[in-house]
Design brief:
9% strand, TIM Barrel, 358 residues, alpha/beta, two-stranded antiparallel ribbon, seven-stranded parallel beta sheet
Length: 358
């Protein structure tokens, strides 16, 4: 399927934007930069806007999503907006009983641990199926459209949680430090595990597809917890589902970024699921990642811990990241994880200015 004629990559200037060019392997006039979690708790205007609204309520309010998505673009001058949302939004829209508890994270009314639990998950449908889930995704399409109105020529990135991260939450029923229940299920009952992963892959993939067809110019699949897995187990029990998620947008000509934390041992396997660019966390220097992934555009990997250091230390680190990024065919500067809530917004703005100068 081709992108709609109204899509920013077709009708607008997004295709010539530094971000899209870099993600396609080009070296634009300046190195593009954006930050994971750039739209969020580090911005006072975000905190003011979110007063009296829960996280999931905010994610389902298109006007609010658009404003929050645009805030860091206005403040920092980053080269992309990323849609303000949460990885559990597609699960909620599908009909799963999930809430986000402040200070805790996603909490599910009923953990998914058996074949019966998986069979009782809501029906998602397939691409082109105008079922309940697809209709529920209209609120996401509206949020993308509203965001594009505020972003102008700045491209929008869509995102979703990777199947393992979604499944880890669903099996435990809440955040876990070691994801032991999910890891135990994949070994003890692989049939149930793979059925759950297929469901999570379709939820994530259809969520990505809705964002792209509504106007997102790139997508990123976040696997926050895959780093807890050995390489062989990831390849056998997780990579096929991540590939299935990406397949939902494989026929749409948009860059596909894959990112995980503490996943240095999984880079090759994670790239192999259908990613066209790789996000690199803080554990792997970019020149090493470039050697391991020849020809692959890279994204990353400023250490968020450095943001609280004196500017001299920040500048030296950013210059080193940009220098190492030159080993890749193209480079998008980002953090090696998300913006901490206590980060100084003026520091982020100075980093964007420095990267653009370099």
């Amino acid at each position: 399927m081709t992108l709609p004629s109204t899509h920013p990559l077709v009708a607008g200037r997004a295709a010539a934007s530094p971000l899209v060019r870099a993600l396609r392997g080009d070296r634009p006039e300046h190195t593009p930069v954006w930050f994971m979690r750039q739209a969020g708790r580090s911005l006072p205007e975000y905190r003011e806007l979110r007063q009296g609204t829960t996280m999931l309520e905010a994610c389902l309010d298109p006007a609010l999503v658009a404003e929050i998505t645009a805030q860091p673009v206005r403040r920092h001058g980053v080269d992309a907006g990323i849609l303000f949302s949460d990885i559990v939004v597609p699960l909620l829209l599908a009909g799963v009983d999930v809430t986000i508890e402040p200070g805790v994270g996603p909490v599910f009314a009923k953990p998914v641990t058996t074949a019966t639990d998986v069979a009782e998950l809501p029906r998602l449908g397939v691409t082109g199926d105008r079922g309940d889930f697809d209709r529920a995704l209209d609120v996401v399409r509206s949020a993308v459209a509203a965001s594009l109105e505020l972003l102008g020529d700045v491209p929008l990135i869509g995102f979703a949680g990777a199947p393992f991260t979604l499944a880890a939450y669903m099996v435990d029923g809440r955040p876990s430090r070691d994801h032991l229940a999910a890891r135990r299920l994949m070994i003890a009952d692989p049939e149930v595990w793979h059925a759950l992963m297929a469901w999570a892959a379709d939820a994530a993939g259809l969520f990505l597809r809705a964002q792209v067809l509504a106007g997102a110019s790139a997508v990123q699949l976040f696997d926050s917890w895959a780093g807890s897995l050995p390489r062989e187990r990831y390849a056998a029990h997780c990579a096929p589902a991540s590939a299935r998620a990406f397949e939902h947008v494989a026929d749409l000509d948009v860059p596909r970024i894959h990112f995980g934390t503490h996943t240095g041992h999984l880079l090759e396997a994670m790239h192999g699921v259908g990613a066209t660019a790789m996000g690199i966390d803080v554990t792997v220097p970019l020149d090493e990642a470039a050697a391991r992934l020849p020809g692959v555009p890279l994204q990353g990997n400023i250490d968020p811990a450095v943001l609280g250091a004196p500017w001299e230390a920040i500048e030296a680190h950013v210059r080193d990241v940009v220098r190492r990024g030159r080993a890749a065919p193209a480079h998008v500067v980002n953090l090696g994880h998300g913006v901490p809530p206590d980060a100084d917004p003026t520091v982020l703005t100075r980093i964007v200015e420095l990267v653009h100068e370099l």
